[in-house]
Specification:
- With 112 residues, this protein is mostly beta strands.
- Helices cover 0% and strands 53% of the residues.
- It contains no helices and eleven strands.
Length: 112
């Protein structure tokens, strides 16, 4: 059974930065593609970023391209999302995913 635990969310002013982490257990993440998604109340969960295996290719939603960076530390079995130049519209609960598995989410709030 895969378990994913996100952390690193919080309250930040517009223009600031946060680094989200997703610690995985039960599976070696280096063998799988993983991604970050986000959701705000009343809206569907939306794609943010994805990193593939084995090439480690990365993909981003247009809304975060150039500001967010997805990365992975296979030794620590942890996925990261570096978020820079944050905007109020980035406010959401952020989830990491591995296949059909999801974490519990971490809240990111960006104040204007």
């Amino acid at each position: 059974q895969v378990q994913l635990v996100e952390s690193g969310g919080g309250l930040v002013q517009a223009g600031g930065s946060l680094r989200l982490s997703c610690a995985a257990s039960g599976r070696t993440i280096g063998l799988y593609a993983m991604g970050w998604f986000r959701q705000t109340p009343g809206k569907e969960r939306e794609f943010v970023a994805r990193i593939t295996m084995p090439a480690g290719s990365v993909y981003y939603a247009d809304s975060v391209k150039g500001r967010f960076t997805i990365s992975r530390d296979n030794a620590k079995n942890t996925l990261f999302l570096q978020m820079d130049s944050l905007k109020p519209e980035d406010t959401a609960v952020y989830y990491c995913s591995l296949g059909n598995n999801w974490g519990q989410g971490t809240q990111v709030t960006v104040s204007s």
